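User: Teach me something about this protein's shape.
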Amino acid sequence: MTVPHLVTEIPGPRSRRLHDERSQAVSAGFGVTLPVFIADATESTLIDVDGNELIDLASGIAVTSVGASNPRVRERVAAQVERFTHTCFMVTEYEGYVRVAQWLNDHAPGTHEKRTGLFTTGAEAVENAVKIARAHTGRAGVLVVDEAYHGRSLLTMAMTAKEHPYKTSFGPFPADVVRVPNANPLRGRPVAEVLDEIDRTIGEHGADAFAALVVEPIQGEGGFVVPAPGFLPGLREIANRHGIVLVIDEIQSGLGRTGQLFASEHEGVVADLVLTAKALGGGLPLSAVTGRAEIMDAVHPGGLGGTYAGNPLACEAALAVFEVLEDPNLLPRVARIEGAIRGRLEPLLAEFDVVAEVRGRGAMMAVEFADPGTLAPRGDLAQRVSAACHAAGVLTLTCGTHGNVIRLLPPLVIDEAVLAAGLDILVDAIRSTVAGEPDTTIADATEEDAA
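Assistant: First, the predicted structure itself:
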């Protein structure tokens, strides 16, 4: 059977009925990208309650990187369920937690001695990194980058740039968070100029004001922005010079997503603290802070923890994820995913000038829509293209400060024929949506020929 395989419209009648029930049971504050209810899954597809099989180009926002139904994850979690489900690691210990920490210590960038703490969500990892950096430095301030996304808790909302929907009506937020510019190649200034401004900002507040500088090596919700070359190394140098803990947030970009185990490896930058979550638990809630032993051990005993932090089921899922990541064929496969996406999307740059940029690394790719010349964001186009993909049975996500970016996060293990089918539908959706726009290269060429 070829996919996508649709037996009803999207969403189908059973999904619509369940969505009506959801509306009566669940807070309206929870949004939804595509209101279909999933009953089953493969490593490449999602099967809804109406029997429609959809191509998954979202991976649960980079969570199910080894597939939404990975057999090794299922096996290890099922075996752990038979033993016990929880004890709380701060009460009694279990081996899985230690094994996960050891793997992260061994594989995170850098040859220095490391320690790891496990938590539950990405936002928890970010907040605990700030706590650890403050304990180590005795300072309070946190530097974050424009267009950043770090979570939905109060501190991480303060660290997040995008106002709506994440921050609207939820303030006031914690203080001591200072935002600095990003080196966005499409819209930003030269790297040296950006780094000089960051240095000036630190000087204005005092060199001893900041505990941590937190940065995504590739921005996620901010638009899958790959920083200009030299930006991350420049931040590393600034952090070194001012005694600031460099925290690299690999929650969306890490664990093989970009074709390296960690996206920061593309720039050769080693963090003081590196954050993982999402893909780490293979679909179960798990996050981690991994970093220099002397920084991680600066916190007093009992200062870190959480009731569910490093839950044994999630640890077993993570150990299964590590087995997949250690397959020598996996990261070359991710490089082929990038090649396939670029091969289909980059020709659109010449075809339509509202297709402003195709960017990303590995299986973390995006296409941005903006008016030519002004680069005014075209969120309407991104939304319409994504809706067309959904109707045709391909799950895509939008992102970006202005919602004008379609991001592609296929499972790292996606079947290559399934990926090709999904990309065919995406390209058709872009063409059918954008072709009627007045400011296209094709339209301009036709007018010139007529003249």
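Now, about its shape. The longest helix spans residues 416-434. The chain has 15 helices and 15 strands. If you'd like, I can walk through any region in more detail.
User: That's plenty for now, thanks!
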